[in-house]
Amino acid sequence: MDGGSKCPRGQLLHLDVCVDEQKPRGGVLELLGRLRPQWKPQDIKMKVFTEGITNQLMGCFVGSLQESGAVLVRVYGRMTELYVDREREVEMFQILHTHNCGPQIYCSFRNGICYEFVRGTVLDDTLLTQPAIYRLIATEMGKIHSIKLESDNPVENILWKKMAQFLKLVHNALSNTTAPHSSKLLQEIPSIETLADEMETLKRHLSQIGSPTVLCHNDLLTKNIIYDNKEGMVRFIDYEYADFNYQAFDIGNHFNEFAGTSDTDYSLYPRPELQRDWLTAYLESYKHSVGLEATVTELEVQKLYVQVCKFSLASNFLWGLWAILQARYSSIDFDFERLSGFGTGLGTPVFNRNDFWCNKNN
């Protein structure tokens, strides 16, 4: 190892180490030699977390994983640099940690990052519908959405830029007819022109419905929620896509995740009664965090409810494009083509246009 260097943004330590995806232990021990020099290599245990569908994640510890001092080592997935801004991810880590909404990031290395282990367990899908749990999630999201940057410059909403980036990458990936999966994908998904038209329809209408731009997680599936039963709290992890976005997108995206990822079932999408209770808890947290009277009216809940219904379609569209890219490039064993929903009717705006116009007219 050639040592470490500081990067200008937030003075984060960078270590010139590359961790082998297939045989990670050697590289991980090299990283821990700098981060935890008091640990003896023979005492270090590693637990590989299998929930992730983009990156490889390992928990490193001496004694118990739940004890303080444990380190998470994340090795970036293959070709993810095409659509993930790694510098922005680090910045989001630092911002959320500063506001007590995220773990400390310890260092970056050539193909990943190391950060603080968040004590608790990954939230089980079945807990999403329990009021005590979903109100904790709504409250935490309200806190994050209230975070303001110490800058006079207006924040940039990244949704349409990110969506256009994904669409361009999909076009490039499918243009390579010799690539694995490409012939199957070309048969199943709509044309690039159709997808571009759908994106413009979403942009034209959703940009006008008044959802504020806030700091969002943007990828709040259950595997990115850590539940600490002893403390009665939840924390959000994984900030690859965190950035400023529409408030209703972040909520609608989370509601979509009720349907799951590996075995997607949209009958599990939250019922209106649950959504309204969730949104009430969210608005109470958000208004309190920004210094407003925390009383929430039915009119406020109804307005946000309609906005969230509409933006849930933009979420489906974005992650449908993402899943095509993963199917093309990822080395992780997962059925991304099915997750994309294209060709299966599982929930992209191409197949939900009637629902969109129904929500638009409400």
From TrEMBL:
<dbReference type="InterPro" id="IPR011009">
    <property type="entry name" value="Kinase-like_dom_sf"/>
</dbReference>
<protein>
    <recommendedName>
        <fullName>ethanolamine kinase</fullName>
        <ecNumber>2.7.1.82</ecNumber>
    </recommendedName>
</protein>
<keyword id="KW-0444">Lipid biosynthesis</keyword>
<keyword id="KW-0594">Phospholipid biosynthesis</keyword>
<dbReference type="Pfam" id="PF01633">
    <property type="entry name" value="Choline_kinase"/>
</dbReference>
<keyword id="KW-0443">Lipid metabolism</keyword>
<comment type="pathway">
    <text>Phospholipid metabolism; phosphatidylethanolamine biosynthesis; phosphatidylethanolamine from ethanolamine: step 1/3.</text>
</comment>
<comment type="similarity">
    <text>Belongs to the choline/ethanolamine kinase family.</text>
</comment>
<dbReference type="GO" id="GO:0004305">
    <property type="term" value="F:ethanolamine kinase activity"/>
</dbReference>
<dbReference type="GO" id="GO:0005737">
    <property type="term" value="C:cytoplasm"/>
</dbReference>
<keyword id="KW-1208">Phospholipid metabolism</keyword>
<dbReference type="GO" id="GO:0006646">
    <property type="term" value="P:phosphatidylethanolamine biosynthetic process"/>
</dbReference>
